[in-house]
Design goal:
By secondary structure, this protein is of the alpha/beta class. Among the domains are: 129 residues, no CATH class; 33 residues. Helix content is 62%, strand content 13%. Strands 5-6-2-3-4-1-7 form a seven-stranded mixed beta sheet. A hairpin with a 2-residue loop joins β2 and β3. The chain starts with a helix and ends in a 14-residue tail after the last helix. The mean pLDDT is 79.
């Protein structure tokens, strides 16, 4: 009985662990399995070398999704079609990384966007050479959809040749349109251009240019020698050591917290001064000081004699205080008690 309970507990523990693990996976990323996604496919009638599964997909530079599969139409839709009748397109499928609402809205708007000129083309990502799929609006009359007899598994977005493919196509078209007369005319023009270049080169004063170049090189060599002598005579190492020491002291000064505190205080004082200046308090204070100075001048001018008498009295008082201070130092008891201190008789001694 006890063994059966252990098995039941073990089973409940395993079931609970599996449930917790499933919940964690669902929270971390499993919810994407149940969200609606939008996948579309496009066909290319040319090579897509460099484009790989997982390559980014951008709509006018904005990340939209990634390439989920690169297939051939022969293996996907034309298995039962004779080889000579196959289109041999490259099928590129794209998975869009959007929310459920955005994916549903894009699925509804896909037909209208394609009619407006939405096209997919491969492009190079900067200097790395990695290919990515770019979506943009192009002229639908210039880049019509490719013709195919099958029903696409996903929403079909027409493609447009890449810029390099367009250049190659234009070059091929140009070469194909050349006839024998055009080739002869091109050869004549090239010969004429070579003759004109030879004539221009003969007219160039090579000797004069050579002499001027030599003079220029001599002057440059002399300048370099002067610079070398100056550098050799200058105390470069001593100067560099001083610069290194100054740089170290400057770093220490800049890293000192007191400098930051001083700058903060200066900023606060500057803000307060700006507030005082903007409020007009400084002007009022200056005007008040000017008024007070004028009043003091008037007061001193009107009472000049009284002030001199007061100064004389203060001098006499200071002299009396100086005499009193000296008397206190010599005979403090006499000043305080009114007479000199009496003599002290010592028992057994002479009077």
């Amino acid at each position: 009985m006890e063994e059966g309970r252990r098995y039941v507990r073990l089973g409940l523990f395993v079931i609970a662990s599996v449930a917790v693990l499933a919940a964690a996976l669902f929270v971390l990323g499993g919810r994407k399995w149940f969200q609606p996604t939008f996948t579309f496919e496009t066909y290319f009638n040319q090579s897509v070398a460099g484009l790989e599964v997982g390559a980014p997909v951008r709509f006018r530079g904005v990340p939209l999704g990634h390439v989920s599969a690169i297939l051939t139409s022969a293996a996907t839709y034309e298995r039962d079609v004779p080889v000579e009748q196959r289109r041999e397109y490259i099928v590129v499928r794209v998975e869009v990384n959007l929310s459920a609402r955005e994916a549903t809205q894009m699925r509804k708007d896909a037909v209208a966007l394609i009619r407006k000129g939405l096209r997919a083309q491969t492009q190079l990502a900067g200097l790395t050479g990695q290919q990515y799929l770019a979506l943009d609006f192009l002229d639908p009359r210039k880049y019509p959809p490719l013709q195919f007899p099958w029903t696409p598994k996903y929403t079909y977005v027409p493609s447009a040749p890449s810029i390099s493919g367009q250049i190659i196509t234009k070059a091929q078209t140009f070469l194909a349109n050349l006839n024998e007369a055009d080739i002869k005319s091109l050869g004549i023009n090239l010969n004429r251009l070579v003759v004109e270049l030879d004539t221009k080169l003969d007219e160039v004063p090579v000797a004069q240019l050579s002499a001027q170049s030599q003079d220029l090189l001599l002057n440059a060599n002399g300048t370099l020698e002067r610079i070398n002598r100056i550098l050799a005579a200058a105390p470069i190492e001593h100067t560099l050591r001083k610069l290194d020491s100054a740089s170290t002291e400057l770093d220490a000064l800049l890293s000192d917290p007191a400098l930051k505190e001083t700058l903060d205080n200066v900023a606060v004082i500057s803000a307060r001064l700006r507030e005082v200046t903007d409020d007009g308090q400084l002007d009022r204070t200056v005007n008040g000081l000017d008024t007070a100075a004028e009043r003091m001048n008037v007061l001193l001018g009107d009472n000049q004699y009284d002030i001199r008498a007061m100064v004389e009295d203060l001098r006499v008082t200071a002299a009396n205080l100086r005499v009193l201070s000296e008397t206190l130092k010599r005979d403090p008891a006499g000043v305080l008690l009114g007479g000199p201190p009496g003599k002290i008789s010592v028992p057994g001694g002479s009077r």
